[in-house]
Amino acid sequence: MKYILLVGDGMGDTPVPSLADTTPLEVARKPAIDALARRSRPLLVQTVPEGYPPGSDVANLSLLGYAPERYYTGRAPLEAASMGVEIEPGAVAFRCNLVTVERTGDGRIIMLDYSAGHISSDEGRILIEAIQAECGTDHLRFHPGISYRHLLLRQGEVDGLVTVPPHDYLDQDVTEFYNRYATVPDLQQVMEQAAAILSDHPVNRERARRGQLVANGIWLWGEGRSPDMEPLREKYGVSGSLISAVDLLKGLGVCSGLRVLEVEGATGYLDTNYQGKAQAALAALEEDDFVLVHVEAPDEAGHQGKVEDKVQAIEDFDKKIVAPIVQTMEERGEDFRVVITMDHYTPLARRTHEDWPVPMIIYDSRGVSNPLSRPYTEENVKRAVAERGEQPVSGPRFFQAFIDPGQEAD
């Protein structure tokens, strides 16, 4: 039996006025997913436990079968694991975004873009290396990542500091959150120094010349220490691979003992190398029991409030990931199970994550009793689960039922 977990990050939504009060999932052309749905078991999965932030870190940890209540220590440590950056004893890892902010005349700070216009990895690396060269010490060390997503390691406790993800506050006043860094003087100082370094950097001058957003600040968040996770093989008896463009997901792969497969051209947005991801997954399944393919584009579109981009991201997920993987597995003639899901909702109206139970379908090539028999949408799955008298299940309970078909996820 082969187990395939396909995650369209943030696909879920609420009715959108410009889509005649339907959701992107309802209007997107997704023949491969809908064909599966009619032969799949519907499920609602509570990926984010009560009291936890509804981020991709918590939600995907849960989807992989690890209870966040036991294993979650923060987002940045997972990204550090992906980057091969060791968090030394006593150190705390921070996610470090390159951002675009507006500093108003009355001293306020407005978050214009959490990604500095989805700055390229090459440009981001140059800027972070410039900050490290000027600000890095044995106490503070910057590590370049992908696009706008980077890392800061700091020695010592940060008790009392509460950070927020910048993508939750687009076009909003973040002065209050920025001022919190003043409670940790060296962090306040390095953020101010970084802004000064970025203000006249050649990379930003060239971006401005091209009419692009400039990376004029850094934003620290997602802090935490290294998690202690047993490998998926020991926990659930499956071995496998993970494919994603995002360091966070790659870090989950490293910490759970999965092979992390690098796909050239995987960007985390609409221009990602979908074909390369699908081919890598199919190649992995020739020897692995399990593969997780994560697509970030629907979430990015949700954060930016771009309706057409989100619909396109879902259609691309269907056509370029789901369809070729399912078709090839059917041609191979092996027994397989495939899950189509999101990790969390990212409603266009909110432009941030929600912790609602996510709609999921589980397809088994050997057949499923009492299948959904309807297209895959938020409302269809909710209605089907309610009609069966079922309740949302936790991520670990879902995963156990997924890899052990003899178990029920209720």
Fold topology:
Layout: E1 2-8, H1 24-27, H2 31-37, E2 41-46, H3 56-63, H4 68-71, H5 76-83, E3 91-103, E4 109-113, H6 121-135, E5 140-146, E6 149-155, E7 172-173, H7 175-179, H8 185-199, H9 202-209, E8 217-224, H10 232-236, E9 240-243, H11 247-255, E10 259-261, H12 274-284, E11 290-295, H13 297-304, H14 307-332, E12 336-341, E13 358-364, H15 378-387, E14 393-394, H16 395-403
Parallel strand pairs: 1-11, 1-12, 2-14, 9-10, 9-11
Antiparallel strand pairs: 2-13, 3-4, 3-6, 3-8, 4-7, 5-6, 12-13
Helix pairs in contact: 3-16, 5-11, 6-8, 12-14, 13-14
Walkthrough of the structure:
- The chain is of the alpha/beta class and 410 residues long.
- The chain folds into 2 domains: 2-72 and 228-403, Alkaline Phosphatase, subunit A (3-Layer(aba) Sandwich), CATH 3.40.720; 83-224, no CATH class.
- 37% of the residues lie in helices and 20% in strands.
- The protein is built from 16 helices and 14 strands.
- Strands 10-9-11-1-12-13-2-14 form an 8-stranded mixed beta sheet, sandwiched between helices. Strands 3, 4, 5, 6, 7 and 8 form a 6-stranded antiparallel beta sheet that branches.
- The longest helix has 26 residues, at 307-332.
- The two termini are 22 Å apart.
- The mean pLDDT is 95.
